[in-house]
């Protein structure tokens, strides 16, 4: 072959590789409302930045006549590119090649980009759209999965890992996304489950659709497996870009700082009136968040799961900050198993990646009852406590209203190494709410009273007494557990000042192999 022909041959091979499983299968992918692996990568990355690797890799399986059917690149597109100018490593499973099913060589391709990402200290983004283990390959495919899992585990806490589920993700294949930091699912076409509806039916007799078993609503709302639910792939890919803007490239770096025209001393009078006079009346904590952060921009994580707690990213004076906030608007902001797990995972992510944490507290306590006890609220609550107590990033806590009992301790209190703990004058910091406390303390006297009027008067007096003593932040402030009582409208300024003062914070936990968080 002449050199000229060699070049033409290369161009032809590249064109062939770019067609994946062929035009018919690409058309079928589009007909399902899905993009191809390459289209997804192009949309995700900065224009023209993608450099593909291993385009000429093919599978090496000889079972069931598979050697006669080979596609350049096999069932995954891998490489690197940039997002807002920062390097990321990507892999996108190509459903047009054997349904994106994982072969030995596909696993090698994925592992290669994961290893590169670790070496270079860059995020890894995986786009999943696959029929699972390549059936014809048997155990080499299973081994390939395990190679990926091990890398997911070692990369955890070193580089951010993000998984987008844009198609099937079933069987053991679900565990790679589950090991990553963030999982995203599209409303249609995506599902995740350990066993599909047919197996479920044959084993348990339960009749359930794919959607109801492992669709985006299930995982973003009920199980919490998915952190984000998006309407379509484009929205998902743009969300990944946005999410990365809040994150550093790796655990040794800081998140990028953005210019902002939002004044740091912006006063928000509305906050002085946001807490209702009746302590049982809810308000929307998201209003508080949007009001105090830069330009009102908040990227919420796990929006549909455990809505009694809010977690997500925002910026204060351009600095990326993780926010954890009780939501009085949902279940009164109580801490239950799901809320504890959700917040604990978020706190640990922030701590692993040097993102300071702001905690906004309005929590009536842990949710009582057998349901929660049987579900292990003790262990789950301990996770959140552990996560806060272990975290060494700057931690600022603001108590807006209730902060009762164990939940007070858990929500980044001073003794869990909260750096600056402020309270609004509306804060109530106590072992429990007034009526519960009076019932315990005065139960015998109350039950001995026969006259309902006298009883009501007695309780009202005792409640008023208790509130006078505890339904305020000053008792806690008198012990130094609250560093300052601040005017609500000045919250943004005080938070920014606090984080500025914490910029040089250095705390090192005792040396150990690893902790034993109550999983
Ligand atoms: C090999 C596969 C495949 C697989 C799909 N294909 N899954 N080839 N191994 N696992 C091929 C099909 O033969 C077909 O080839 C093409 O991909 C597209 O598949 P279709 O069935 O036509 O597509 P669709 O109707 O959209 O259905 C998609 C699907 C279905 C729901 C994913 O293909 C399916 O149920 N596949 C099997 C899923 C499964 O049970 N996987 C194993 C899970 S257990 P042609 O040539 O016709 O285009 C597992 C263990 C992992 O993964 C353990 C890790 C620890």
From TrEMBL:
Broad EC category: ligase
Transmembrane segments annotated in the record for this chain: none
Coiled coil start-end: none
Gene Ontology terms, MF aspect: propionyl-CoA carboxylase activity
InterPro entries, sorted: AccD/PCCB, AcCoA_carboxyl_beta, ClpP/crotonase-like_dom_sf, COA_CT_C, COA_CT_N
Pfam families reported for this sequence: Carboxyl_trans
EC number annotated for this UniProt entry: 6.4.1.3
Protein keywords: Ligase
Family listed: Belongs to the AccD/PCCB family.
UniProt protein name: Propionyl-CoA carboxylase beta chain
The encoding gene: pccB_13
